[in-house]
Each structure stands twice: as C-alpha cells, then as structure tokens.
Amino acid sequence: MLSKSKLLAFRQCPKRLWLEVHRPDLREDSSATQASFTVGHQVGDIARQVYDPKGKGALIDFKVGGFEAAFARTQALLQANQPIFEAGFRAEGALAFADVMLPVKRGGKRAWRMVEVKSSTSVKDYHRDDAAVQAFLARSSGVPLAEIALAHIDSSWVYPGGGDYSGLLVENDLTDEAFSRGTEVRSWIEESHGIVTKKKEPRVSTGEQCSAPYECGFFSYCQSQEPQAEQPLHWLPGAQSKGLKAHVEAHGVLELRDVPDALLNDKQRRVKAATLSGKTYFDQKSALRELAQHKLPAFFMDFETIQFAVPIWKGTRPYQQIPFQFSVHRLARTGKLEQQAFLDLSGGDPSRAFAEALISACGERGPIFVYNAGFETARIRDLAQRFPRLSDALLALNERVVDLLPVAREHYYHPSQQGSWSIKAVLPALCPDLNYGDLDGVQDGGMAMEAFLEAISPQTSAARKAEIEQQLLAYCALDTYAMVRLWAAFSNSSLKI
Q1: For the chain, which residues make up each domain, given as ranges?
Q2: Which residues are CB-contacts of 231 (< 8 A; sequence separation ≥ 6)?
Q3: Rounded-to-integer distance, Cα 280 and Cα 321, Å
Q4: Please, which of 2, 141, 203, 431 could form a disulfide with 89 given CB 3.0 to 4.6 Å?
Q5: Are residues 136 and 18 in contact, defined by beta-carbon separation less than 8 angstroms?
Q6: Assigned fold of 2-196
Q7: Rounded to whole angstroms, how far apart are CA atoms 311 and 97?
Q8: What is the CATH number of domain 286-491?
Q9: pLDDT digits over 162-194, tens only?
Q10: Would you tell me the crossing angle of helices 14-22 and 182-196 to the nearest 10 degrees?
Q11: Could you tell me if 271 and 293 are in contact, meaning their C-beta atoms sit under 8 angstroms apart?
C-alpha cells in the first residue's frame, strides 16, 4: 500500500518515490522542511478547534494500534454522526488519512464533507493533486463523499485574541475537479507501484523538480551521483536568459568557464571573470561617490523577526514578520562608535516597545544604513500601521534609510562569494577578521528565530534563557558592526572603527 505522500512524491519525481521506499536513510530534510512539518501540525491542531468547537469529534491516530485499527475505527465512526479527524481510507493499493470529515445530509441520507487543511496562504497545484487522491481513495473505499474542500490560511486575517481562531482558515471547494480526476489518480497508483517494484532506482538527473513543488530531502544524494562542477553555473547571479538555458541544455554545460559571454548580462560576466581569474572586482571610486552624499553621523540598523502561521499575539496576522530585536550602531563624525540594542524575551508582543525604542535609538537626523532595505522598511511600515500615534516618527525613519546592498552588488565582487551578495558572503572577503562562524550558538537568522522560540517557552530555564539572550545580542550586534565595516571599506574611510 502506498501512502498519499508517496504518490505525491511520485508526482514530483519517480526517483524520489523509489528512494522514499527503498532508501529512506538517505533522506536529509533541511531545517526549513522540518519547520514546515511543525507548522503543519500546529495548523492541524487549530483546524480541530475550528471544525469541532464543542469538542465532540473523534481523532484517529494510526500510531496507536497500527493501520488496521485505524481503518477499522474509521469505518465504525463513519456510521456515527460526529466530526472525524485523520480518518483512514485504503483502496486499489493506496492509503490516505483525511484531515477533517464532517457529517452532512444529502437527499435525506448521511454523507460526508472532507476538508484538507494546509498551512499555505493559497491553493497550490500540488494541493489539487492531494485533494484528487483523497477523494478517489475515500470514494473507492465506499464512503458517500458529497464534497471536498481545501482550507488554507487567510493571511489578511487579524487575530482578535482570546484563543478565537474562527477566521484563520478559508475554504476553496474542489469537489468537481477532484471527483473528475479518478482515472488520473488510478494511473498514478499503478505507475507508482511499477516504480517501487524495480530493483534499481530510476535514472533521473537533478533539476527543477528537486525543489518544486517542495524541497527534496534526497537532493544531496542525487547530486553526489553526478559529475560535480568546479565552478557551477548556479554561481551566476539573477535569472538565466532563455538563450543561456537553451545553450546549457543543448551542450550539457556544467562549468562557468564554458558559458559564452554573449549569453550573459553585465553582472554575470563580471562574476564569471572574477571567478575564472581569482581576482576581486572593486570599483571603490564609484562606491565612494555613491556614499559621499550621506554625511556623518550615521546609523546602522538591523532587525530580527519571528513569524507564526497561527498568531499568538492579539492584533497580528498569520506569517506576519514581527520584530523582536534590533541593533543600532551610531558612527559620529569623530569616528566614535556606539551601539544600542533592544531584545524582548518576555513572551509578550514586543512590537510597541520595539517601535518606541527604535525611534529613540535612531535620533532625528542622519542616514540609516541597512543591508537589503526592503526588509527593515517593510517592518517599519507594519509598525506604523499598527501604532498610529507612532506612525509619523516611524515613517520618518524610512525616509532616512540608505541601502548598502546595491552598493556592494554594483561595485564589489570577490570570487569567494560564489554568486551571492548576502552580508555573510561579502563580509569575510572584505573584513576577514569578522566571522559569523565564531559566534556562540546563534549564527544566522533562522537560528535567531529558533533561539527566540526556545527563550520564550515556559519550559526554558532562567539560566538557558540568559544564555540565549547573550547569543542573540552578540549576533545582531555583529550584523550592524559588519555594516559599519563595509561602509568604511566602500567609503575608503580613515576612521578607526
């Protein structure tokens, strides 16, 4: 019996299906994938509250008693008149568990309405495949299924507080489409069984299917089976032109050196030249000219944020990026450097206190340097919308923001960057004495989010919380100090900082 997830793995890549069945030990899920599993469970828990507010439904757990017990209990509950969660169905060599089954009346008889719950904010194509499989297996196993809908998160919904999540999910009816795809689903099952019965894994080259519609945990294994480029094409920044893609496919190009310059844009040619020569590209005069218009004193600002698929703070939206920490370095005309920091690990909504502290830390005049301005300025606009009394002061900060990323992207490239201008790629090249890897505990934004969640958990000890606090403060401070050093290098500054 193949599970629905195996059938969807087949839809993504036959090799993935074979490996899921025969070599699951090779699978390496990224932290992002694991986080998505956690989010899915959280949304599933909320869905049970939404669809069964009185708590009269039944939850089936195949881990307790096994699959046979789960299928038997499902059949028994289908004769009753209550919501069922994780009902199990099997037919024609496949099995699946439905998120929500709700009893309805059709023509005076009991029927069922199925709801598949997703943590995304819209309906994806692979969700439609998911619904088609669920509908086919339920109907093939004899369930009088009247409707099937897909419920996803409404990203515009604002949490009113008090544990009321009644508006979190929005439904999309997929009944007609899902019911019409039975023949298609049957063919997927047959083809999937044909794949898994093979003694050897299918020969499939890595490609776009490795990350779409979701990241494949077997990518590292599959890539290791292929010739490895010394200087791979993915180091080229930006989108590849149609001509470049066609040339690569037609000639099997792997190495950067084999790509004709005529098929590259200016920035890509610059990256190729620096990579092949091993020489840094640095147009310091142009960088200096861009930055010279921004006089000291200057501020250097960076945020850390957290987001929740299921909001926990009143007045916030699903997946809203909520800042909980900032670092601001102030560089005076004399070269004196001072830092201010904000970090709220209380577990309450940090937003208003963050906004007030940020306004105070950035003063009323002077450029505010950031790296990739879109992120910080968007957070500031969110705060201005949430707190109208602070709106003018917050939006005034945005008027002063200067982005260092375009300066780096246009005027600097070191071969070690491998096509990236993230601050963590540029910093080691320009300032080799600074290294995020030397930090204790928190070394990137993802780790900062995880550390924050651990710190606000009631189960975290005071000693551990204090340790996390120091790690977060050190990480965010390095982000802004790194910008000071980049500014100094681009400005050819003689200031000792």
Answers
A1: 2-196, 229-264, 286-491
A2: 255, 256, 257, 275, 276
A3: 36
A4: 141
A5: no
A6: Lambda Exonuclease; Chain A (3.90.320)
A7: 26
A8: 3.30.420.10
A9: 999 999 999 999 999 999 999 999 999 999 999
A10: 50
A11: no
